[in-house]
Give the backbone structure.
Amino acid sequence: MQRITMSDGTTPRRRRLALALVAVLALAATAVAMGCGGSGTKRPSGPTPAQIAARKREMTLGAQVFAKKCALCHTLAGKVAHPTFIESPIPNLDEVKPKLAYVRRRIEEGGFDMPTLSSELNASQARAVVAYVAEVAGRNVAVGASSADQASGQQVFQAHCQSCHAIAGRAATGTPAYPGTDFNNVRPSVKLIEHQVRRGIRDEMPSFRGKLTDAQLEAVARYVNAVAGR
Ligand code: HEC
Ligand code: HEC
């Protein structure tokens, strides 16, 4: 399967982002026109029974929206997706723990191979699926690095990854054609990182198979897993 290439040699990410932006602006305009709705009331400190019930309803709606709009591509809560029509890796959401605001942004902006979905969802569906994913994702993501692991892993990261990936409050140092995942927003499992680093992503991220030793690979994976997503 070939990734689509424009006549100038670029892939259509910029175009998609432009389209996504139009969709987001349209959505924002609608939200303003509707007076933003939602829960305008101030919350007391502890959740009330009504709030707990509302949260439960939101999780149920979120799970329904996920099953309809996302489960086609993403594995979550052990329900394995088998997408065959997309070439680049689709994050297994049991192997990554994304922050809520990042999930929201992904839905609004889409990605390289992820469509913009906010235009297909009404405001409460979008809110619910974002809350659901933020709550449920990352069940296989544990933090387990010792500080010794972190020092050697950090060195590998600075030498090989930092040009494309932001982490631990530091911005990426390079200007890659496609910016890598911002690890301030998402904590991947050691397993997912090792897999991704070995495999690479065609046209976007080099494969480090044979370029890093197994020990370096494990160290960098443990480092990223330990410090990402905070
Ligand atoms: C057509 C397949 C497809 C669908 C449908 C889809 N996604 Fe994605 N998603 C992807 C791909 C591919 C990526 C990897 C990033 C990219 O494309 O740039 C991704 C990335 C993400 C990420 C970031 C994960 C990370 O580790 O950085 C989140 C969160 C996410 N998707 C949530 C959702 C949600 C929620 C829905 C449903 C509302 C959804 N996706 C629907 C393909 C899809
Ligand atoms: C030339 C730029 C580049 C370099 C160098 C690079 N990456 Fe990436 N990486 C990317 C891009 C681009 C993506 C996909 C981002 C997306 O889909 O939105 C990515 C994705 C990832 C992911 C998947 C994250 C997720 O949540 O789905 C991991 C893990 C990762 N990279 C780890 C690393 C590590 C560790 C190194 C160093 C050994 C590294 N990368 C080096 C560009 C790079």
Q: What stands out?
A: Residues 156 and 212 are 9 Å apart (CA to CA). Confidence is low (pLDDT under 50) at residues 1-39. The pocket of heme C (ligand 2) is lined by residues 91, 96, 111-112, 160-161, 163-165, 176, 178, 180-181, 186, 188, 192-193, 196-197, 201, 204-206, 208, 220, 224 (CB under 6 Å). The radius of gyration is 19 Å.
